[in-house]
Every structure is written in structure tokens, then in C-alpha cells.
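Bench notes, afternoon.
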Amino acid sequence: MGNAWLFLVVALAATSVLLRSVALLLVAALVVVLMGVTRLWARYCLERVEYKHHLSSYRAFTGDKLVLTTELSNGKFLPLPWVQVKDEMSRYAAPLQGRVVAAPEHERVILTGFISMSWYHRITRRYTLVCQRRGHYFLGPAQIRSGDVFGMFSNELRMERDLLLAVYPRVLPLVLLRLPAQEPYGSVRLHKSLLEDVTRPVGSREYVVGDSLRHIHWKTTARTGQLQTRVYDASTAPNFVVFYGVRTVEPPLQGSRPHLLELGVLTATALVNYALENGYPVGLYVNQTSRLTSHLLQVPPSSNPDQLTRVLEVMAQVHPEESRSLAAMVSERSRSLPWGTTIVVVAAVIDEATYTTLLRLRRAGRAVALVKVGSGGGAPAVAGIPVFTVSDAVDWQKLEVVELR
């Protein structure tokens, strides 16, 4: 737009010289002054302009409604005749009000607004967000655009992602529709003790908030650079650990079946909640890394009151791409677990290596159970290992209870 006005000034000046017209020359000068003023206006229009987000809660469950508050303020004497705001967010936590358009990035939308502001003006707007699906969702980036009153020049201000909303999966009750031939929850047969037998350490694991500082393994901590807690004999520390495999298509094919992934998340969460309700230290491992931290998605076993919240934080981050094989993760992580730990593997696709690993653990005396997510392919019987199936006949979004058949 500025180039067009500059061309107009040159044309007026040339014409005034040819026609010897003082009036045209004055018009050209006026346009030059106008261009200077508008350019300065556009240059400083976004100075001391702030745009902020605020959510009524940064943690929610699927189906919850939150209030998003946006605040745009102009902290200077210069008024803003027009301001365009483009605020990007996830389509799975999109506002019910306002003008929402599709964003270039997949599964993102843009909340747009066009307003005017006087000097030292502040505008606050509130929107209702519906958390449609579990996940970790960023609010932003936001783009603020403004300029002079004639629209000759404009300026842009970009604000990076500033808020993270965690939407947890629903915590459903767990129902056993059949009793196994052998009790899968091996820790039930162990006697719980209020006092740990600190004379029989069997290894170490990563420190979890709530662990006693008296049980810190300082030598291992110094070697690994991370706090490590001593692990004691299973007779005094029965645990319940869930391993979740995210693969939903048979190898070597790549891709994902979202309904099986979400059904698996609900199943693993229900198992963890079931064990916590029965008073057992619970842990969870997922065979993939977090997209936020690049660390393995895991929650080491603990009976801390906040353990379910930690598990929900992890399950909110689950995505379709596995970072390592399920068999390798089970084999590696089981070495640091107390001997009496109940190991439950939840997966939609279980390959031969996973079966072999579970059989090896069972023959070594481990308490192992297998939960097959989805009815496709059935759940083959494995000698000595209780096998359960979670049917996918009902849409996972309509499930009210997780049934182990």
C-alpha cells in the first residue's frame, strides 16, 4: 500500500511541474506529510500493546468446559483505529463463541477478532472452551496487527505459545466379567507391612516425590546424575505396574487406529485406578517418549496420594508413535521392579517378542497378566498367563465402564 501512495506523490509532483500548477504541488506535499504521519503511526502503534491469556483451570477432564479470558490493552496515548487479533489454539479445545477459522497446522484453529481501541484502553473478552479430547494443548501463538487510520501502513506483533492445557482421560471403573484360573494380581497374596525390610535391598529406581529420603541410593545417584531410591525385597513392597503399548496396527505397517489407542488409554488408566483403590503402590510405563520433554513416558511405582494425578499427566501425552518396542521396555524395566510386583501389559497389538518376554517373566516366577485391547485377532491363550480382552464394540467416547472379559 505504501508503494502505491509513493507512486501517487511522484505522479502529482511531475504533473504539477508540467502544468505549472501550485495546487497540485501543494496536494503532493500534503500527501508526503500524510505518508510520514501514517508511517510513524504504524511504526509505534503496537508499542506498549499487550495481549494475555488466562484459563479458569489448566487441568481438566475430557468433556469439561473451561473459561478462556483474553485481555488486549493499549498502554499509550496513541489510539488504534483498528486491531486484528489472530489467536491459534487446538480444535479439540476450541471456543464456542467468536469467529473460528481453520489454521494451516493440522488440528489447529484460529480465533479471530477485529476491534478498535482508544488511548489507554483495555478490552477483556471471555469464551467457553469445551475439552473434546484428552491431550496437551498450547494456546497461541497469537498475532496482533494494526496500523494507521487510512490503512496505508501496518505493523505486526507475534506472541509465542504461552499457556499449556492438560486434558486428562476419563477415569472409568474396572469390571472383571470372569475370574481367572490364576489370580493375576500377584501382590494380593503377599503380606503388606508398614515397615520395610531395609536389610534386603535388591536394586534401585528413579526417585519419586514421596519416597523417604532415608532410602536414597547415593552411590547410584552420583553415577547416574539423577536421584535414585533403593528397592527392597518384594515381601515388603508389593507393587502393581502397567505397561502400555501404543502400537495399534500390525507390523511392519505404520499408522494408527485412534479408537484402539484411546480405548487402550482408558483401560490402562482404569487398571491404575483399580490398583490404587485397593491400596497398592502403582507404576505406569508407556513405550514412547514425551513430545514435550523427549523423556520416556513413565511413572515409577509409588503409593503417593498424587500418584493418580501423575499417571493422568502421562496418559494425557500419549500419542500414536512408539519410540521403542513393547517387549524391550517390559524386559528392561522389569529388572528394577521388586520380585512380587504384578506386571500387567495392555496393548492392541502384541507381537511374538512380547509373548516371549512375558513367558520368560512368568517362568521366572513373576506375576504377569495380559490385557488385549480390541476384539480383532482374539486373545490367544498363553500358558500360565491370565489373558483378558477389552471389546471395542462400543465407541470409546461412550464407554461408562472398562470390562475385562
